[in-house]
Amino acid sequence: MSETTAAVAAPTASVTAPAAAPRRGRRVALDAARVVLALFFGFSAVAKIMAHESAVQSFDRMGWGSGAMYTIGGLETAGAVALLVPLLAGVAAIALAGLLAGASIVQLTLLDPPNAVMPALLIAVVVLIARDRKDRTAELAALLRGPTAARRGGQ
């Protein structure tokens, strides 16, 4: 390598090193958010699956039966567990965004409109998680398509 090339390459290396720190900080923050959200959805699911009085009352106010309560509790459980699995976290975040959108609409229309803010804010967090995990989601999609799909795409 010539001296000119070395002089040009050295500043480039020093410029890219500091850029890694914000990415690492963002990753740590999003990983912490995944754990907190998994706990949040886990506790919310337990209340529904165990038919806690507050959950039963909410579903009665909506005019929905216990089947809907158990179904949503099951979806929240699956989402909470999947958030903790790196390969599934992106898909879980996308699914939970849908669940949270529904929760926000229900709060606005059937329950307490001021409480619609919380699920709307959580949508922003799960969208950030889904965006951060898009490479892993693509990896999962490729795994699900299997090796024959990869061979067809290459022809």
Provide a short characterization of the protein structure:
This protein has 155 residues and is mainly alpha-helical. The chain contains six helices and no strands. The chain is globular, with a radius of gyration of 22 Å.
What does this structure look like?
It is a single chain. By secondary structure, the chain is mainly alpha-helical. The chain contains six helices and no strands. Helix 1 packs antiparallel against helix 3, helix 3 runs antiparallel to helix 4 (89-109) and helix 4 packs antiparallel against helix 5. The radius of gyration is 22 Å and the shape is globular. The model is unreliable at 1-15 (pLDDT under 50).
Write the layout of secondary structure elements.
Blueprint: H1 3-49, H2 53-62, H3 66-83, H4 89-109, H5 117-132, H6 134-154
Helix pairs in contact: 1-3, 1-5, 3-4, 4-5
Query: What is the alpha-carbon Rg in Å?
Result: 22 Å
**Approximate strand percentage:** under 5%
- The quaternary organization reads as single chain
Unreliable segments of 5+ consecutive residues: 1-15
Derived from helix and strand composition plus strand pairing, the structural class reads mainly alpha
* Main beta sheet: none
Which of globular, elongated, flat, extended, rod-shaped describes the shape?
globular
Strand/helix succession: HHHHHH
Number of strands: 0
What is the terminal-to-terminal distance? 39 Å
Mean pLDDT: 85
Number of helices, where a helix is a run of at least 4 consecutive DSSP H or I residues: 6
User: Helix amount, in percent?
Assistant: over 70%
